[in-house]
Amino acid sequence: MPIIDATHLRTLQRELYSAAGFPEDQAHIVADHLVDANLYGHDSHGVIRTPGYIRAIISGNIKPVRELKIIRETPVSAVIDAERTIGIVVAHKAMQMATDRALEHTIGAIAVHRSSHIGRLGDYPPKAAERNCIGLLMLNGGGRFTAPFGGTSRRLPPNPIAFSAPTPNGPPLMLDITTSMSAGGKVDVYRARGQETPDGWLIDADGNPVNDPNRFKGNGDAVAMLPLGGPQGHKGYGLGMMIDAIAGGLSWAGCSSEQPTRGGSGYIAIAIKIDSFIDLSDYLNEIGRLCDWIKSSRTQPGVDKIYLPGEIEHDTRAKREAEGVFIEDETWDNTIETANELSVSIPDVR
N or C end of the chain: which has fewer CB within 10 A? Predict the structure, then answer.
């Protein structure tokens, strides 16, 4: 697998999206989001997505963001029809708008439908936390490939949820999870690397375990993913259902069904102003005490440290910024092909 300096990878991605016709600011938002996903260790939501995004941009299926189409609005909320514009940019703006409203009115909530893929959810709530708010994002999106608890048919998307809260020192706390055993993109990474998926992720129509990631492709019911928790996934299934009800219902996208009202994949970005409830300094004190208390736990054999939510991603980022970003051969070959089509030069790799 090639190893690419993160700065060179970022420059390449920005040039690709600019060459595909995106305004410079939006090209930077998308490129930075994808490279950051790789740096944080979430390769399934990183530059592996670019060849597909670029094809959709060139074909006109994904467009740059012009003026946002707001179809319902109150002082604290809005519903946006994204009109198939680039999802990462719209989600960035939605969290910014939610935080702006929260800082003025205590809470802000922006719901979005008809957006293209919004990438790694964990990128957005910290933007609220950096402005001294609690950040939350829920999505009833991704392919509908998750079986309900006790079932074998594809019925729900991975329905991820991400939270973030500021800390007194260091980066915000951040939790970003799917309510399925994994994001579908992680199966794509296993397939691209010629590896089997872990036990407990996939089942066939008869409930038998599946480890071949190639069998996961397609929209039929031949292979489904288990809800978070695997064979004991009733909690993951229940959480996924409630996210579908909130994100799908409030966004106008429609809840999961054979044909969701407006295609599904709706999301809601929520921000909560902390000092409407408690002085910010007192809140940060409480979070500091919580973190210290958790870190004080004895570790299990073979465990070096207790990680706070989001901390392992920051350790991974520091390592990859120093050593470079690993890109699987298939992704790099597809990237080179895309760059050649757009007459964008390729950086050196190791």
Answer: C
Residue-number span of the structural domain to which 17 is assigned = 3-62+309-341
Domains: count for the chain: 2
Domain-located, residue 207: yes
User: What is the residue type of 325?
Assistant: V
Q: Is 209 found in the same domain as 175?
A: yes
Distances (CA, A) of 39 to 175, 314, 325: 16, 8, 7
State the CATH number of the domain containing residue 136.
3.30.1370.60
Residue 126: enclosing H or E segment and its boundaries?
Answer: helix 125-129
In 3-state terms, what secondary structure has residue 180?
strand
- In sign, the C-alpha dihedral spanning 44, 45, 48, 51 is positive
In a domain, 34, yes or no: yes
| 246's tokens | 């909130």
pLDDT tens-digit map of 135-170: 999 999 988 999 999 999 999 999 999 999 999 999
Domain membership of residue 221 (yes or no) is yes
State how far the Cα of 125 lies from the Cα of 174, in Å rounded to an integer. Answer: 8
Whole-model pTM above 0.85? yes
In angstroms, what CA-CA distances link 232 with 42, 86, 221? Answer: 25, 36, 21
Helix (H, G, I), strand (E, B) or coil at 193: coil
Q: What is the DSSP string of 59-117?
A: HTSSB---S-EEEEE-SSEEEEE-TTB-HHHHHHHHHHHHHHHHHHHSEEEEEEES---
Determine the Cα–Cα distance for residues 269 and 4; give it in Å rounded to an integer. 33
Q: How confident is the model at residue 219 (pLDDT cuts 50, 70, 90)?
A: low
User: b/e string for 205-223 if b means 16 or more Cβ within 10 A?
Assistant: eeeeebeebeebeeeeeeb
